[in-house]
Amino acid sequence: MKDFAGRVAVVTGAGSGIGLGLARMFAKEGMDVALCDVRGDALAEAVENVKGFGKRVIGLEFDVADGAQVEAAATRIEQELGRLDIVCNNAGIAIYPRPAAEFTDADWNWIIGVNLHGVINGVRSFLPRIQKHGQGGHIVNTASIGGFQVQKGRRTAAYATTKFGVVALSEGLFNDFEGTNIGISVLAPGAVNTNIYRASEYRPDKFGGPVARPNTALPVLNDGLHADAVGRRVLQAIRDDELYIFTHTSTRDWLARRHARIIHAFEATERWEASEAALNNGQERS
């Protein structure tokens, strides 16, 4: 997709952070935008912000972890804005870092429900509506650089578990739609200035209710990339039909180290295969 004017974009988790940056940049490019978020107060403020670009903007308050709510929202967006062209399944949460073994069932259900099922629900409800008009479109699923590697000492195993799933889903969708007019990308940002680690303050009652926790990760995010810059990066990636959307070249070394460990593991497998072959040869001679 090269031309955005007159198209319709849908962004979940658009009340703040990356989602708001995406919505702002889409509107700036001449798109009508549906902003979606579970937080009504943040959503209302974000809608007014994006309206400043002079395009049609609507806000929908719902929980991406609830498939029925996502489907209802997709129907309403189509009715009010006429079509869907670009969908950013961006809504995501992070729980205060701690060892994965300490996570409760409620913690797991919440983080998987939003970060992974939220993306799945978005694909199931929004993608068929892009396909319906036949003029092509693009899906962007927000993962994280944590969807490609797990940093030692960060204690983000639960978060990374969900983001690895988003990467795998996106790669599979890319394979399914390669060569068609439907583009698929997975956004894997590094540090971005967002309030994602405050998500526990808004945790629904069904997942244990709000929890206010100190956050050691917040200073790192405060020094991160501005969300509007992420929006501009995503626009470039959609134009260029990129599968992987990285925001920081500095994270390349993280992936290189992980992949080096993986390749090294095959060397151990080669030694095991050699020992198995020697064992089998010895048994044959006996």
Shape: globular
The overall strand count is 7
What's the number of domains?
2
Strand content: 5-15%
Instruction: Give the N-to-C terminal Cα separation.
Output: 67 Å
Low-confidence stretches: none
CATH topology of the largest domain: Rossmann fold
Largest sheet: 7 strands, parallel
Helix proportion range: 40-55%
Structure annotation, total helices: 8
The CATH class of the largest domain, by name, is Alpha Beta
Strand order across the largest sheet: 3-2-1-4-5-6-7
CATH architecture verdict of the largest domain: 3-Layer(aba) Sandwich
The H/E string reads: EHEHEHEHEHEHHEH
Radius of gyration: 21 Å
CATH superfamily of the largest domain: NAD(P)-binding Rossmann-like Domain
What value does the average pLDDT take? 92
Structural class: alpha/beta
Main attributes of the structure:
about 290 residues; about 50% helix; seven-stranded parallel sheet
Short description:
This protein has 286 residues and is α/β, with parallel strands linked by helices.
Describe the structure.
- The chain folds into two domains: 8-247, NAD(P)-binding Rossmann-like Domain (Rossmann fold, 3-Layer(aba) Sandwich), CATH 3.40.50; 253-286.
- Helices cover 50% and strands 13% of the residues.
- It has helices at 17-28, 40-51, 67-81, 105-133, 157-177, 218-222, 227-240, 252-285; strands at 8-12, 32-37, 57-61, 86-89, 137-142, 182-188, 244-246.
- It has a seven-stranded parallel β-sheet, with helices on both faces.
- It is globular, with a radius of gyration of 21 Å.
